[in-house]
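Incident review: delayed structure delivery

Summary: a single-chain prediction request sat in the queue longer than the usual turnaround. Root cause was a stuck worker, restarted by the on-call engineer. No data loss occurred. The affected request and its eventual output are reproduced below so the record is complete for anyone auditing the incident later.

Affected input:
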Amino acid sequence: MDIELYKKVLTKYWGFTSFRPLQEEIIRSVAEGKDTLGLMPTGGGKSATFQVPAIAREGLCLVITPLIALMKDQVNRLNSMEIKAMAIHSGMSSEEIDIALDNCIYGDYKFLYISPERIPTRIFQTRLLRLNLNLVAVDEAHCISQWGYDFRPSYLKIATIREHIPAGVPFIALTASATPAVIEDIMTRLEFREKNVLRTSFERKNISYLVRKAEDKGTYLIKTLHKVKGSGIVYVRSRKRSKEIAELLVANGISADFYHAGLPIELRDKKQISWTTGETRVIVATNAFGMGIDKAEVRFVIHWDMPDSIEEYFQESGRAGRDNKPAYAVLLYSPSDKSRLEDSLRRKFPQVEKIKNVYEALCNFLNVPQGAGKDNVFDFNMADFVSKYRLPVIETYNSLSFLQREGYVEFTEEINNPSRVHFTIGRDDLYKFQVANESFDSFIKLLLRSYTGMFTEFVAISEETLARKSALTQENIYRFLVKLSSLNIVKYIPGKKTSLIIFTEERLERKALMISPENYLQVREKYIVRLNRMIDYADYNTKCRSVTLLDYFGEEADRCGVCDVCRERNELDLSKYEFDLILDEIKEVLTGRQADAQELVSKVGHPEDKVIKVLRWLLDHNKLVMDDKHLLSWKENDLFSR
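Output delivered after worker restart:
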């Protein structure tokens, strides 16, 4: 393999002369035809590991990702670099998909992005054999694992692609976070020819991980943001709270705004740009804020509410300090959070009968008869749905998520599909039409001057932009397009912003809708395990925060020295080795029994003053408890049944 060729591609299109850590190793593996699982942290440059080798080689790279907005963003970015890329997702008509696939077969396209639920459809399967693939890239690969935190049944269909493509076409799977069990599952589910994991350390030495136990989070946040400098993100778990906290910060002289998925996409884009450019200092957001963030100088990420898993927390906090300068990841934690999490658990897993109620209501809402609907795509307005059937919003959303997990439907968040136009006749026939229909001539010329490629594919247009370029109103632009469409000169698809429901199976009778209690309980138990690990992270303050996070992902590391736990331990004037040794011996003495301080000091084979320091530290951090007889015992967590 000529790595210099790949470096030339990197320099030509991205302007870099060398690869980041691990990028070159992954590219070498892919270039040698090996199935490759790449684990790289958020912001580590995952996309280059498949884009560079795909550009350097003849053929087309198939990219599978569940995030439609990210898919469209990457396609736009590649096209702006004059690299031909196409996207196929559930928001497109069958005619658009048909034309897009034809272009990928007969045109010189380098990338085809596709959402996973499109893979088993007849229209894709019949064309797959004719695509000249050089690589299959699976982004967000953890979604294929039932051990992962974001399992998607549609991902289980990806391996079927191998049946229809040459044996030598390698798969590259990419994710920013995966436990050892998930890593094994990814390679098994994607039918890797041999195990091949390439990973960079998840350790972020420039980030100080802090947990702050604060009853009054608002006061803490205001004081902290007045003291620290720079831009940052405050993550919350509800849309309502994002607005309330942003208003609280503004009222206290801090430049802030809020962001969540319920806002119009134009407003979301405006808010994100304002924060990215530094006009807004702090963005208070739900987890909808994160995709496509391209801001290196984020000095802090603060979690007002605790995420559901270490994976989520690690990805979100990892948006701090991508410029490798010092940054902070702060989790605000209070005893009341535990009761909120217990309530969250109840709503996260509605009763099976309630899930079935939502399924039946959904089918009726979309007018899907029994035995029909498979592979059909429906516009879906959640607000109208819950209002019509008087359903609780959060439980309904979680019921849809569970139906998705069971493989009955796919549910996408709101996507913004602009208007699209495609000329259905050739240039010669169009010229004849213009000559014979002078009233359309100026408008057709306006279209052709404003956009290219409309004879070969559907092209996104903006009625507002066309109106600005002409003396016409947007209403007149719309009428011209509708009329040309009725005359079969163009195909015009008006833009819309909506969520989508895709039926991956035909509508079933209620009694045939199988949500097995065993599977339901298994999913719930996995969720509880992940949640408990997140709670342990916040509650357990005797172990380095960074070490705790890395241990979760199966990685060993030394104490970071800069998290809140390490800083307090540094004040004891004990080395990590001494502290851990004394801690382990104390725990061994107290396993299954109690002892007083004098007995502990005598049984732990270290200098008395050092043992007392560790004992005092453990008592201060509520890891040892003392009864009324001054006997000490080790305290275990009892947050959820384990």
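Verification: Residues 150 and 462 are 35 Å apart (CA to CA).
Action items: add queue-age alerting; document worker restart procedure.
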